[in-house]
Amino acid sequence: NAGVTQTPKFRVLKTGQSMTLLCAQDMNHEYMYWYRQDPGMGLRLIHYSVGEGTTAKGEVPDGYNVSRLKKQNFLLGLESAAPSQTSVYFCASSLEAGTGSETQYFGPGTRLLVL
Amino acid sequence: GQNIDQPTEMTATEGAIVQINCTYQTSGFNGLFWYQQHAGEAPTFLSYNVLDGLEEKGRFSSFLSRSKGYSYLLLKELQMKDSASYLCAVINSNYQLIWGAGTKLIIKP
Fold first, then answer.
1. Distances (CA, A) of B76 to A71, B12, B15, B88
2. What does the pLDDT look like over A59-111, one tens digit per residue?
3. B21 touches chain A (CB under 8 A)
4. Using the beta-carbon criterion (under 8 Å), do A45 and B43 form an inter-chain contact?
5. Do residues A76 and A58 lie in contact, with contact meaning Cβ atoms separated by under 8 Å?
6. CB 3.0-4.6 Å disulfide test: which of A25, A102, A113, B1 passes with A93?
7. Measured between CB atoms, does A2 come within 8 Å of chain B?
8. In the predicted model, what is the mean pLDDT of chain B?
9. CA gap A88, B85 in Å, rounded
10. Is the CB of B99 less than 8 angstroms away from the CB of A43?
11. B10-38 pLDDT, tens digit each
12. Would the CB atoms of B101 and A41 count as touching at under 8 Å?
């Protein structure tokens, strides 16, 4: 089992460029999440999905879009990158929520630098 | 608002014991997690508490008091590899996970 994987591992963008971050999990988890992590701050939820074909906004959704066309994949898109989006992005998945199975498993992260 | 408070940084000596505290104020409570995160790596699950009391797992133990909005992570027989950040996270009434900023633990020989 690979668990949760993310691509790419590192990317440099210029302001205004767009890109897509890919997350894949092979644990048959229903829930998937995208977080950003900035120095001195806790993980902040960008968007999440409670199942294939569903998405919902988290704490900091502006400037990002997501899609969950397949259960195992969760894509995060930056439409027009800004320097404020320089961060480390983590994808996570969990079996479900609200039943004691909320443990989230994280991917290795994507380091994004926007110039 | 919802808030999770943890010390920013702690220092301890190899072989010693350290306690990392977490206090929380959230809209409801459905459980509390502790995660470990080594520099440049992903967070990994350490413990989950939903009832009051102490949960022991090897060298690591986690305690919860729901009435006080308080938890701690206790690390015994510290090893150099325990140098990492420790993240406290609470599940609120909407089953959303609210994360603390983490405590950076530095272990000295």
1. 40, 11, 7, 18
2. 899 999 999 999 999 999 999 999 999 999 999 999 877 655 678 999 999 99
3. no
4. no
5. no
6. A25
7. no
8. 95
9. 15
10. yes
11. 999 999 999 999 999 999 999 999 999 99
12. yes
Please give the structure tokens belonging to residue A21.
């971050």
Count CA within 13 A, CB hemisphere, residue A82: 4
Residue A73 C-beta-side C-alpha neighbours within 13 Å: 9
**A42, A102, A108 ranked by CB distance to B101: nearest:** A42
Distance between CA A82 and CA B101 in Å, rounded? Answer: 23
Asked if the model's pLDDT at residue B43 lies above 90, the reply is yes
Residue A25 near chain B (CB below 8 Å): no
* Tokens matching residue A76: 């995060």
Q: Whose CA is closest to B82, among B52, B38, B31, B49? A: B38
Query: Given a cut of 70, is residue B89 above it in pLDDT?
Result: yes
| Closest alpha carbon to A113 in A83, A69, A68 | A83
Interchain proximity B30–A98, CB inside 8 Å: yes
Instruction: Provide, as residue numbers in chain B, all residues whose Cβ is less than 8 Å from the Cβ of A102.
Output: 30-31, 33, 48, 91, 95, 97
Strand pairing report for B103-108 and B9-13: parallel
